[in-house]
Design a protein that fits this description.
Elements: H1 5-33, E1 39-41, E2 44-46, H2 54-58, E3 90-95, H3 101-108, H4 118-123, E4 129-137, H5 142-152, E5 155-161, H6 167-181, E6 186-191, E7 194-196, H7 198-207, H8 209-213, E8 218-223, E9 254-262, H9 263-269, H10 282-293, E10 299-301, E11 310-311, E12 327-329, H11 334-346
Parallel strand pairs: 1-10, 3-4, 3-6, 4-5, 8-10, 11-12
Antiparallel strand pairs: 1-2, 6-9, 7-12, 8-9
Helix pairs in contact: 3-11, 6-10, 9-10
InterPro entries: Glyco_trans_31
GO cellular component, one term: Golgi membrane
Subcellular location: Golgi apparatus membrane
């Protein structure tokens, strides 16, 4: 007997076509039902439920996400009356160790001094900005920091002991203070060893087509083109056990030198603040909160393909100026911060 396998092949093809058609119908239905399920990542529409950890963030049977029940901060400011609120366009929150006054002073006298960039600010309708520093607490350093705070009125000193693994709470506290006491378009979270090229920053925020298209709902900065894998290396500084984060990858997040957030995004993040068990890596945690905020039609602007905008491979011993860069890390010497600022003014 001779079997005609062509019949079976045709049946298989028809079944496969029906499955594909059915899947397409479901996808189209979802799009029509709620376009807000999707976010714009560098002009590519993607689902935030794509499997790189968001199922855990949004909630699934395997990893249910429970909205934090305790919305009461277990952290507070120790110098509340010494801080001048800001009302303007761009607000910086700089994470700084309480003992690192030299670093703070180097920023205050360089790129943190808005009066040095009057010409560039006028180019963008008089845009203004202000830099604030977030620190923790140490017995032997608090009095000096309190005096520094009274003089400059730009420090947020928290009552929790300085601890690298407690930075997430400090960031949340800074976000809440900013929302409650300041008006701004963009909030930038960064570190005290980062140089900001203010003219290039203005150009990015006020000329970049992607940011202009998502002006009031944008997440930008040193966000990598692909999602980052969670580290399981016991000897890594960024080791996270599976008990804390079961997924193999993190959602999109920006590294510490540049988190640029629209005010609306920060507002939507606030209900998801977890004061009891925040994720230990503050930069990753910001990305998680952005994801949980689920802002409709939000744009995530990642670094360009050449990675020229946010340079994070610098050396503390060398000082070289990068013409196209918005940030440079690590810059810890005052003379270097001054040199880079001077070059940004004339370039």
């Amino acid at each position: 007997m001779v079997y005609d396998f062509s019949v079976w092949k045709d049946m298989y093809r028809r079944r496969r076509r029906r499955k594909v058609l059915f899947a397409c119908l479901i996808l189209v239905s979802l799009l029509c039902f709620n376009m807000n399920l999707f976010i714009d990542v560098d002009n590519k529409i993607i689902s935030p439920l794509k499997n790189f950890g968001q199922n855990m963030l949004r909630g699934s049977k395997k990893h249910p996400f429970v909205m934090p029940e305790n919305h009461t901060p277990n952290i507070k400011l120790l110098n509340y009356d010494d801080i001048d609120p800001f009302h303007g366009d761009i607000m910086f929150l700089v994470t700084s160790h309480i003992r690192f006054q030299i670093r703070r002073d180097s920023i205050r006298s360089s790129w943190g001094d808005a009066s040095r960039f009057t010409k560039h600010r006028l180019k963008y309708n008089g845009v203004n900005y202000k830099v604030y520093f977030q620190t923790g607490y140490l017995d032997g350093a608090f009095q000096a920091a309190k005096l520094e705070s009274k003089i400059h009125r730009d420090m947020l000193i928290s009552n929790r002991t300085e601890d690298y693994w407690d930075l997430s709470r400090r960031v949340m506290l800074g976000f809440i203070w900013s929302l409650e006491h300041c008006s701004f378009e963009y909030l930038i979270k960064t570190d005290d060893d980062v140089f900001y090229n203010i003219p290039n920053l203005f150009q990015l925020i006020y000329e970049d087509p992607f940011i202009l298209a998502h002006k009031d709902r944008v997440f930008a900065g040193s966000i990598y083109q692909i999602t980052r894998r969670s580290s399981r290396d016991l000897f890594s500084k960024w080791y996270v056990p599976k008990e804390e984060w079961p997924a193999d990858e993190y959602p999109y997040f920006a590294t510490g030198m540049a988190n640029i957030l629209s005010r609306l995004v920060v507002e939507r993040m606030r209900p998801h603040f977890d004061w009891v068990n925040p994720f230990r890596l503050d930069d990753v945690y910001i990305g998680m909160l952005v994801n949980r905020a689920d802002v409709p039609r939000m744009g995530i602007r990642k670094i360009n393909a050449m990675n020229e905008e946010f340079y994070g491979k610098g050396s503390a011993k060398k000082c070289f100026y990068l013409q196209q860069s918005v940030t440079q890390h690590r810059v810890i010497k005052k003379w270097c911060m001054e040199r880079l600022t001077a070059q940004s003014l004339i370039s």
